[in-house]
What we know:
The structure holds two protein chains of two kinds. Chain A is of the alpha/beta class. Chain A has helices spanning 2-5, 51-58, 88-95, 113-123, 129-142, 158-170, 188-203, 215-221, 239-244, 249-258, and strands at 13-22, 25-35, 40-44, 66-71, 74-75, 78-79, 84-85, 98-101, 176-180, 208-211, 224-229, 232-237.
Amino acid sequence: MSEHTHASDVPAVSIKKMSKSFGDIEVLRDIDLVVNKGEVVSVLGSSGSGKSTMLRCINWLEEPDRGTIHIAGQRIGVNEHAGRKMTGKELATVRAKTGMVFQGFNLWPHLSVIQNVMEAPIYVKGMPKEQARAIAIELLEKVGLADKHNAFPFTLSGGQKQRVAIARALAMSPEVILFDEPTSALDPERVGEVLTVMKNLSAEGYTMIVVTHEMEFARAVSDQVVFLEKGLIIEKAPPAQFFTNPKTERVRKFLEISA
Amino acid sequence: MNGQAWLLLFEGAWTTLWISATAIAIGVVLGLAIALVRMAKVPFVDQLLVLYISLARATPLVTFVLFLFLSAPTFGINMNRNTAAIVAMTLNTAAFNAEIWRAAFLSFSREQKEAALACGMTSGVFFRRIMLPQMITTSLPGLVNEMSFLIKGSPAIAVIGIVDLTRVTNRIAAVTYDPLPPILAAALLYMLIISALLKLQAMAEKKANRLAM
Ligand SMILES: Nc1ncnc2c1ncn2[C@@H]1O[C@H](COP(=O)(O)OP(=O)(O)O)[C@@H](O)[C@H]1O
Ligand SMILES: [Mg+2]
């Protein structure tokens, strides 16, 4: 019970001293990040700096070597009561509190649009089909795809696929949604429709961590901007400060190039 | 051909059909199970399965049926003809099916699995709801191909005395002294069975198109 009454004080995501290596290469080092409920955090950095890996450690798609991650107060990956790694089932329960939107959409091609959205509520949460359908209809409306319920993914444009993927993530009412370059695979004229949906979500109070190269989006929507460089967070600031008065030469350079 | 001859022919067709169908049904599921176990790469078990698959694929069905039927008693196993035929055909087709299923496993995209795990699915739910349905669709053309090979190879079971659709034509000819009509009729029945399978295959291929994103 107490967990619920104090829920609003607990950060949506809390990362402490997280490190990750692939072989000999340290891809992330001592990452500390707190994301409060309702916040949007943009993660910037050049290619290969560890942005995807950081995001994928948060929902344990990659297992960090050191450090702790809490999702809405619950430790992910480690069962602290039992003092051991989580089983697949335990892990799934924590992951269900997060949503992820991938660069390549990763829709399930054998399912229609609405089935893609209903799948996890039904088969993860055990929600009755009719309830899941009602939620999916609402969410598809929200992302502007009310007319595509029965379409199959292969008939959609990239922008439409990504909006289905967002609806799919929202369907689980996650504590946080992780976006990994959600617009990088899109045709330029399709980027706007996805960013608009994401802006609306932030206005509605969704908690989001967004890896992106869209500077305008980061500036307009973020509460914090994080800059990763070779696996280190070298800058973390509100956008006003980050974009107008960066502390490091590296970020100044990055912003110049991106402008 | 008189009514009696047609009756014999249909009996032969029925024998071919039910023995093949039983072997196919078990062989498809057994093949999937073998592919699943092979994906786990358990040492020794994996080598054993590889050995079985290469042996089963290299041995002609007729040799395999005969060997199984004749050797079973020396292992203290009492098998009637039909059981021997079903076991031999099942072990033969399962080996081919295991390779078809395995290819489907290996080509399955990691991205879809990550999307499933990310929204809280367990590996079991992911397999049942996301992976298996797509594997069935992508494997079906290959599986159906193998089914028609098996049916076309099924006259092999006559070697242990089963009167199947091909063997029965001999019997009819022995009475009528006119071998051509029963053979033609049998060919027609094989074609009917195979074309039903091809229909299934065409349906699967149509459905598979949507998986290519
Ligand atoms: N599964 C992996 N195995 C080995 N190296 C990896 C793996 N995933 C990422 N890397 C490496 O880790 C580094 C960071 O990758 P990534 O997190 O994808 O960076 P970003 O998303 O910022 O472009 C890169 O050098 C990349 O090659
Ligand atoms: Mg990346």
